[in-house]
Design a protein that fits this description.
Strand order of the largest sheet: 3-2-1-4-5-6
Shape: elongated
Number of strands: 11
CATH topology of the largest domain: Rossmann fold
Distance between the termini: 36 Å
Largest sheet: 6 strands, parallel
CATH class of the largest domain: Alpha Beta
Strand content: 5-15%
Number of helices: 18
CATH superfamily of the largest domain: Crotonobetainyl-coa:carnitine coa-transferase, domain 1
Helix content: 25-40%
Radius of gyration: 25 Å
Number of domains: 2
């Protein structure tokens, strides 16, 4: 599937987002909204741009391989928010926008005279999406807060990794992306409220709170039992069997912890008496004997190839799978059938593969209708002329004053 410039944009196609901020948390929220069809106008400082334009695994001097994903479906304009004239231009755009998305340190927008109190006066329907490390209030709100700090403060870093090593990184910028996802959820909730009341509001998404929201019963367990979750590697304590097991030629992940699924796993292994064994008869007993049970299962999987184990699991309806890397995803027939990975056109890289839009909607699906802008200010003329009605003289003045 290639990017189709004539693709009918998704369910948010009548909405306009002004995206401020840099790097990942704010821009990923903008990507999510753009994937669902919103017109996303990304503002970057003149002559500077978003640092994500140069982040990634590409050789120095070449375009970023990260930027084409996070900046897809966006229009890029330049605007110097540190100049009064730039702040005034932003306010003109706000009048014609549904959302203003920013991920600066709290107080930055207010310093520029563009806090919500000011902006709602010119557009009472505006929904202001604010993503930050610690939120817009509280004693830490003024502090700089990157995703890694939010992951640590929200409790995730402590529980990730092997118990014999220091806390680990998940492997992706999960704190930023969770904060962005919750920001998007909040924005759409605020949009529904606006439909009923006609009033906009502020969506305040803090990195550490987004991570905390995903920590399941971590707080409640400590509150009632004093239990503190620790790093446990591939397992979740007292939930068994659910682990990565060695085969004769690799690894396979099997999740058979529910009673009925465990019974089917036992059938696949030829151990039909195990579901009645007091050591394995229910969730609690299997949790108590987790190490023993995992050892018994791996003793069986090691006698078989990975393919043979997976065939058994499929036959007996036991959830199981491989631990995929990028090459596995690109070759998998299920990924291909659902178009989970899309091929886009890029002016420098040519055909460029990336993940497609999720989730899929049956009536009004989102999609990738435009590749990421490669040039700073690539859409200056389109946005400033068509949306704000600036003429050539006004544009020349803004460029002369280095406002755009």
């Amino acid at each position: 599937m290639a990017v189709d410039p004539n693709f009918k944009r998704g369910p948010l196609s009548d909405l306009r987002v002004i995206e401020l901020g840099t790097l990942l948390a704010g821009p990923f929220c903008g990507q999510l909204l753009g994937d669902m069809g919103a017109e996303v106008i990304k503002i970057e400082p003149p002559g500077q741009g978003d640092p994500l334009r140069v982040w990634g695994r590409q050789p120095a001097g070449e375009p970023s391989l990260w930027w084409p994903v996070v900046a897809r479906n966006k229009k890029a304009i330049t605007l110097d928010m540190r100049q009064t004239e730039g702040q005034n231009v932003l306010k003109e755009l706000v009048v014609k926008a549904d959302f203003l998305l920013e991920n600066f340190r709290p107080g930055t927008m207010e310093k520029w005279g563009c806090g919500y109190e000011e902006l709602q006066k010119i557009n009472p329907r505006l929904i202001m999406i604010r993503v930050s490390g610690y939120g817009q209030s509280g004693p830490y709100s003024h502090q700089a807060g990157f995703g890694a700090i939010g992951e640590a403060m929200g409790g995730l870093r402590y529980v990730v990794g092997d118990p014999t090593t220091p806390p680990s990184r998940v492997g992706i910028s999960i704190g930023d992306e969770l904060a962005a996802t919750f920001a998007c959820l909040g924005a759409l909730s605020a949009l529904h409220y606006r439909e009923k009341t006609g009033r906009g509001q502020v969506v305040d998404s803090a990195l550490y709170e987004a991570v905390l929201s995903m920590m399941e019963s971590l707080i409640t367990e400590y509150d009632k039992t004093g239990y503190i979750r620790e790093r446990t590697g591939a397992i979740l304590p007292n939930v068994a069997p659910s682990n990565v097991y060695k085969t004769s030629d690799g690894l396979v992940l099997i999740a058979g912890n529910q009673d009925s699924v465990f019974a089917r796993l036992c059938g696949a292994m030829g151990q039909k008496d195990w579901p009645k064994d007091p050591r394995f008869i229910n969730h609690q007993s299997r949790g108590t004997n987790q190490k023993l049970l995992d050892g018994l299962i791996e003793a069986w999987t090691q006698t078989l190839s990975t393919k043979e184990v997976l065939n058994f699991m499929d036959k007996f309806a036991v959830p199981a799978g491989l631990i995929y890397r990028a090459p596995d995803m690109l070759e998998d027939p299920h990924f291909k059938a659902r178009e989970s990975i899309v091929t886009t056109k890029h002016p420098y890289f040519g055909d460029l593969k990336m993940q497609n839009v999720a989730p899929k909607l049956s009536e009004s699906p989102g999609g990738i209708h435009s590749a990421a802008p490669t040039q700073l200010g690539e859409h200056n003329n389109e946005v400033y002329e068509k949306i704000l009605g600036y003429n050539a003289e006004r544009l020349t003045q803004l460029r002369t004053n280095k406002v755009i």
